[in-house]
């Protein structure tokens, strides 16, 4: 990646995440990155291309952190726990503004728009990854557990930027533990 492309992508990431995809125009990204308009359009022919690159970079970063969690742990259950703690760490970071993908989906609801398609691709990968992790645990129905984990994460990411993140994170981690002990075929007490 060229230095100019990296500066553009870093500027876009900072601005888009903090202020929103529609709220930030390319002129702001150009000024923040300290490049020319021609440089922006040489690397990103349209704002949509820049938005997709921003989401692709976020996707790649989360995939790398997920791979690290999987490599660091001996069991799938421990990897799920580590990934849960990674998510709560994100929620407690200064400047946390929710999930970049959920935010993007809210701003680009058209299911055929490239931004929305990038969001869906990330979410499909995440669901498949969580299904694979829950499959490695045994005695847990992996598909519903993975869907539940993703839903818990979505809720925690949303609530974590609206109020005190500490109880949100504690609740999310309790939910993850509940998923890890819930056995296939058992009925919940609710």
TrEMBL record:
Listed PROSITE patterns: HTH_TETR_2 (PS50977)
Keyword match DNA-binding: yes
One family name in Pfam for this protein: TetR_N
DNA-binding region: 25-44
HTH tetR-type domain segment(s): 2-62
Keywords, comma-separated and alphabetical: DNA-binding, Transcription, Transcription regulation
Domain of life: Bacteria
InterPro entries recorded: Homeodomain-like_sf (IPR009057), HTH_TetR (IPR001647), Tet_transcr_reg_TetR-rel_C_sf (IPR036271)
Protein name as it appears in the record: TetR/AcrR family transcriptional regulator
Native source species: Saccharopolyspora endophytica
Lineage: Bacteria, Bacillati, Actinomycetota, Actinomycetes, Pseudonocardiales
């Amino acid at each position: 990646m060229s230095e100019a492309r990296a500066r553009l992508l870093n500027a876009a990431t900072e601005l888009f995440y903090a202020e929103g995809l529609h709220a930030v125009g390319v002129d702001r990204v150009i000024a923040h990155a300290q490049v020319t308009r021609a440089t922006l359009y040489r690397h990103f022919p349209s704002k949509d291309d820049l938005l997709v690159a921003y989401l692709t970079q976020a996707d790649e970063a989360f995939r790398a952190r997920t791979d690290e969690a999987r490599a660091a742990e001996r069991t799938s259950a421990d990897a799920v726990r580590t990934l849960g703690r990674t998510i709560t760490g994100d929620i407690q970071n200064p400047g946390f503004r929710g999930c970049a993908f959920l935010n993007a989906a809210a701003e680009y609801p058209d299911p055929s728009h490239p931004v929305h398609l990038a969001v869906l691709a990330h979410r499909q990968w995440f669901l498949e990854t969580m299904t694979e992790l829950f499959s490695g645990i045994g005695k847990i129905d992996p598909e519903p557990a993975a869907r539940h984990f993703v839903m818990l994460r979505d809720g925690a990411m949303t609530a974590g930027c609206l109020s005190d993140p500490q109880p949100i994170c504690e609740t999310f981690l309790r939910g993850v533990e509940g998923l890890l002990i819930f056995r296939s075929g058992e009925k919940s007490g609710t």
